[in-house]
TrEMBL record:
Gene3D superfamilies: Cytochrome P450. It comes from the Bacteria. Its cofactor is heme. This is Cytochrome. GO terms for molecular function: heme binding; iron ion binding; monooxygenase activity; oxidoreductase activity, acting on paired donors, with incorporation or reduction of molecular oxygen. InterPro entries: Cyt_P450, Cyt_P450_B, Cyt_P450_CS, Cyt_P450_sf. It comes from Bradyrhizobium retamae. Keywords: Heme, Iron, Metal-binding, Monooxygenase, Oxidoreductase.
Length: 390
């Protein structure tokens, strides 16, 4: 255990809104041991930006970590050459060129089909009716698991996310995660002969073609699902909510004074869908007066980094005109999110412009409050809206 100063949190309150506690940590104990999480947390942006790159100290290789145990040993839990080899094998499926030439057209087709059904309804929970199915249908294409239902893609992704953030050891959460990974393995088994006979640009197809072993292929597809469903899903619904609650910002976009990508980047900074990334201390290390010992657990709090007052003026404010270059919503080091290009395209090029173009008079349904939750992963739990039905 590190000798970082202790900082206690109220876990339910931290789940409901982690930002007040994180702001206090940044001010009083920027590197703190949080006993309720059993981890030393980094909360300042520049500390995380530099130390995440020190893979010799803060290693992603965590043999006993929840992700390894529950999902298999994927590239996110590997460092150096082992990580880069698997990352490069996946790259052809998620490269900027593939996103531009293949995926964005399919993303738009999914969005158009979903909105065709939504437009006449006049009201919906956009989390469930648009963000969830769009993200899941797009991810089915990208992973190659087109045999799955979009409902299963979302449910299984959420079950894995809950499982790898289950630091309190809830057995029901663990059981749901095991059921989800078994379902994904079955879907992979069904699709292997299909993509072998008809190769494509999906993750499953390019990983099979690379010769990667099946254990790694399974683990890396589960990794893609665990982050590739919730991050764009939560960014779509969250950015929509942010614009509806900040109409002055929506005016900027509609008036051509800002772009949809500005909305995406600022929302990902403001409420980072992935709030935390864990690391294992690999060797004795001292940083800013804190001594770390091998096998200590460290959490890099991306959500806190993106609201660091030293890097962002008035950081709690949603402002699509701000400079977001220092945002680390997708990570900062060698584990920078491999799906970032696809996520940006899905949200900024397809989902947001399509949604606001098709749902005329889009507004919040005040009869039901919007709920937000999470500290390791954070997003809207619902988004009740109304619009002028055709």
């Amino acid at each position: 255990m590190s000798n970082a100063p202790p900082f206690d949190i109220d876990v339910p309150a931290f789940w409901a809104d982690p930002y007040p506690a994180l702001a206090k940590m940044r001010k009083e104990a920027p590197i703190a041991f949080v006993p309720q999480l059993g981890s030393t947390v980094f909360t300042r942006r520049d500390d995380i930006f530099t130390q995440e790159k020190r893979i010799d100290v803060f290693s992603s290789h965590q043999p006993n970590g929840l992700m390894n145990v529950l999902m298999g040993h994927n590239m996110m839990r590997k460092d150096g050459e082992a990580h880069m080899t698997e990352r490069q094998a996946m790259f052809p499926a998620v490269s900027p060129r593939t996103v531009r030439d293949t995926w964005i057209r399919q993303f738009q087709a999914h969005a158009d089909r979903i909105l065709d059904e939504l437009v006449p309804q006049g009201s919906a929970d956009l989390c469930k009716a648009f963000a969830l199915p769009l993200s899941a249908e797009c991810l089915k294409d990208v992973t190659g698991l087109t045999n799955m239902r979009y409902q299963d893609m979302d449910a299984w992704s959420q079950a894995m996310i809950d499982g790898i953030a289950n630091y309190t050891g809830n057995k029901e959460v663990e059981a749901r995660c095991h059921a989800a990974t078994a379902g994904i393995d079955a879907a992979i088994d069904d699709m292997i002969p299909v993509v072998k006979k008809h190769p494509n640009t999906s993750i499953l197809s390019v990983l099979l073609a690379s010769g990667q072993n099946m254990e790694s292929i399974r683990a890396n597809i589960k990794l893609a699902i665990s982050g590739g469903q919730n991050e764009p899903r939560d960014a779509i619904s969250g950015a929509t909510w942010a614009l509806l609650t900040h109409p002055d910002q929506l005016v900027l976009v509609r008036g051509g004074k800002a772009k949809w990508i500005d909305v995406f980047e600022e929302y990902a900074r403001w409420i980072a869908p992935i709030q935390m990334s864990p690391r294992r201390v690999a060797k004795p290390w001292t940083y800013h007066g804190v001594d770390f010992e091998p096998e200590d657990r460290v959490f890099f709090m991306f959500g806190s980094a993106n609201r660091d007052e030293a890097c962002f003026n008035d950081p709690d404010r949603f402002d699509i005109t701000r400079d977001t270059q220092k945002s680390i919503a997708f990570g900062a080091g060698p584990h920078y999110c491999a799906g970032a290009f696809a996520s940006r395209a899905m949200v900024a090029d397809v989902a947001l412009p399509s949604l606001f173009a098709r749902l005329q008079g889009l507004r919040l349904d005040e009869r039901e409050p919007v709920r937000i939750g999470g500290w390791a992963f954070r997003g809207l739990l619902n988004l009740p809206v109304k619009w002028d039905a055709a």
